[in-house]
Sequence to fold (208 residues):
Amino acid sequence: MKRIILSIFRNYKRKPVTSFINLIGLSLSLSLVIILSAYCYSELTTDARQVKAKQIYLVCNENEISTYGSITPGILKKEIDIQVPSVKSSVRITHTWNTPIFKVENNEPIKSELIFADSTFFDIFTYLPVSGNLKNALKEPMSLVLTKSEAKRLFGIEQVVGRTVLLNNTHMLTVTAVIDEPKENSCLSIKAIIPLCSVIAIQSNEED
Fold:
């Protein structure tokens, strides 16, 4: 090892420019390998918790792309359920038009990340329940499912099922379940979920 180090040092002194170029090339190559490895690991571990990951497909409309991704008409779900027998279950997901603001009692209001989803959301996507029954959590209008960290941020405690949250100073929501955040990367960045059946009542007020 000592001889190798001395040989490298002598070569560097003898041809400093060439040695410097080789060193830069080696450093860039190594950096690129590390970056690509990190990217591949991130892609391969995305949604690793999803038990049905290999069976889940996203229906995209290339002509309707927004800041939230691909947009497809909501009526498509009914047509898929009827005309595509190989589909066992389907779920519609949409975001709010404006940044949702949650408020609990006299606490300060906080911004959150919210999606609307069909009641079949937890039949397709795998999330670990902390409290509440996920099978029924999104069946009633104005229900609210929170992540564990969001529940703690709002209430300061974990036992929050049955408590109420005020959305945008207008709509009172009832917490029906709390879920644990996935430790892996996920294509769904959420902190709260509301049943899609409540979207008209909530979004119509936002539009006004």
Summary: The radius of gyration is 25 Å. The longest helix spans residues 16-45. DSSP finds six helices and eleven strands in the chain.
